[in-house]
Amino acid sequence: MNTEAGVQVLTLTPAGELTDAMLPAGDTLRGLQEAIGCACVDVIQLSSRLDIWLDDEGLWKPEPQLNRGAMAVLASFGYVGAAIVGTAVFAEHDAEGDTTSLSESARTAIRELLGC
Fold first, then answer.
1. Residues 68-72, mean pLDDT to the nearest whole number
2. Cα separation of 81 and 98, whole Å?
3. What's the pLDDT score for residue 4?
């Protein structure tokens, strides 16, 4: 559920740090860019509701850092062999495709997949 403060998500760094974050209400794109640390974002739909947001140009950075945790989550959804670099953001989406806060069940599933 979105709050008046924004969209509640999880971020996962290449070092494996999984943290709660809040994207600002009304400007989800800017919030994603800031959380990931990039200008161009890309999204992969993992399920009928769950998304992972990534740096679209991460592989072209001078020293890209693999995000093995994000790669493991992707593999568990059938995306084997995807090279993911930089910070990843997990969020959900609604029927219109708008980014929404993670449900508690999605948070739990991501944490379990990562062994947290």
1. 95
2. 28
3. 64
